[in-house]
Amino acid sequence: xPEPTLDVTxxxxxxxxxxxxxxxxxxxxxxxxxxxxVQQIFAPAFGGDILxxxxxxxxxxxxxxxxxxxxxxxxVRPLFFPGGSIGDLAVNGTVNDLAMSGxxxxxxxxxxxxxxxxxxxxxxxxxEAMGAAARVARVEVATGDTKVVEAGHGDGIYxxxxxxxxxxxxxxxxxxxxxxxxxxxxxxxIGVHGVAIMSVREGLEFGVEIESDCAALxxxxxxxxxxxPDLHALRDPTRGGLAAALNEIAxxxxxxxxxxxxxxxxxxxxxxxxxxLGLDPMYxxxxxxxxxxxxxxxxxxxxxxxxxxxxxxxxxxxxxxVEAHPGMVVAHTALGGTRVVDLPVGEQLPRxx
Length: 353
Fold this sequence. Notes:
The chain is of the alpha+beta class. It has helices at 32-46, 49-52, 86-99, 120-137, 192-201, 218-227, 241-253, 268-277, 296-307, and strands at 58-62, 65-74, 80-81, 84-85, 104-115, 140-149, 157-166, 183-186, 233-235, 256-260, 291-294, 316-322, 329-332, 338-340.
């Protein structure tokens, strides 16, 4: 009798218990555990209507000027990977969070937490990468801070960046504007960054080097807004991948999202690597992609503009917003069935950003 074959393409790491008195790695994964920290600890402690919006960046009005304000921390391992480094991530990640509010980033802060014993040459490489990324993104690192922790109490370098940018007066990007009939567009291949990190971390070879998609998306967003300022929402699907980003929008807008699974652009290298590693590409992080919710009347023109931009050449329509199953994301499979694309609980790939 032949041995049964195992299909590992849908495997993921075991999910941590939801009832836990201690922090686990999954709390940093951008999924359900992360959301519980925010909803049960941070939001009640801090309060405030602005924080309650839970966007990639906070939209503020200060002195009559509309600003976007965002902060993020980076603990990626390894510090350098194909296509980028922790320095590139720190700049591009914050620039992208601001861009998801329609803002053009103006200034960044940078905080370095250094582990005693790290080589100054490594620190110099990271700083140089940050400077180069900032120049490409047309943003200035205006202030910063440095702290050192004892050897064994860090992991080389941790970074925090915060940024501010101006939001145009006619732009209003937020999940609450998403309505049934909106077209869902992703700007290109998904899962590339997470797989690039894992390939280096685990010493895996897939026949071709997989490079991170790390990039600043401000220019792409400006191109989209030039077509119409009436985009409804944008998200960069970083931690938790495309699945987490879509679930967040569905929950915040009270709508359902229907995907065409075959339309989601997943390159063969990522698909094959995920099959080997037991990962689902929908949950793997990206650092140079966005997902857009666009009114149907503008969808074709926005898609054309995205595809004409270097960072949106692979843009594709992957689904639509629907009235059915509010708060849920459902994918129509190649076999004619459907499956729920749920918010991840744990984290498939820790320490990737």
